Amino acid sequence: QSLCFQTPHLVNLNEDPSMSECLLYYIKDGVTRVGSAEANIPQDIQLSGSHILSEHCVFENKEGVITMTPQEGALCYVNGREVKEPVVLKTGSRVILGKNHVFRFNHPEQARERREKVAPTDNSGTMKDMMFANGFMVCGEKEEEVQKQLQELNEEVN
């Protein structure tokens, strides 16, 4: 089987559908470091941009549980909320690093477990998932309406 069917990973999301979901970043067993190419310690995932620190955050994969820990001063968001402390990620979580790097976290094992719990004919989550992903990038929408949608979807994810 392909790595993406076994290994937890981040997949990029973009306003332009042709650019969305074309980059995968695998979260290896142990520690995966995220930062810029200028870091003193080599970063496993290298991102660029004025809001990406040289050592931005760390993903720890311990027995299949993935924890993201932002470095001090790093802009990190999970499901629309700024994160300053370690947070355990769930499949489907939206992760924003800096101001421009938007990802969906996929954990194949969690996704399989979720599919087994939901009836195979239940497609209600598909549209909500798209709204949730687009909620971070909606321009011209009232912020409170977007926040309300994100809150409702976040409650369903959790």
UniProtKB/TrEMBL annotation:
<dbReference type="InterPro" id="IPR032405">
    <property type="entry name" value="Kinesin_assoc"/>
</dbReference>
<keyword id="KW-0505">Motor protein</keyword>
<dbReference type="InterPro" id="IPR008984">
    <property type="entry name" value="SMAD_FHA_dom_sf"/>
</dbReference>
<feature type="domain" description="Kinesin-associated">
    <location>
        <begin position="6"/>
        <end position="31"/>
    </location>
</feature>
<keyword id="KW-0493">Microtubule</keyword>
<protein>
    <recommendedName>
        <fullName>FHA domain-containing protein</fullName>
    </recommendedName>
</protein>
<keyword id="KW-0963">Cytoplasm</keyword>
<keyword id="KW-0067">ATP-binding</keyword>
<keyword id="KW-0206">Cytoskeleton</keyword>
<dbReference type="Pfam" id="PF16183">
    <property type="entry name" value="Kinesin_assoc"/>
</dbReference>
<keyword id="KW-0547">Nucleotide-binding</keyword>
<dbReference type="Pfam" id="PF00498">
    <property type="entry name" value="FHA"/>
</dbReference>
<dbReference type="InterPro" id="IPR000253">
    <property type="entry name" value="FHA_dom"/>
</dbReference>
<feature type="domain" description="FHA">
    <location>
        <begin position="33"/>
        <end position="98"/>
    </location>
</feature>
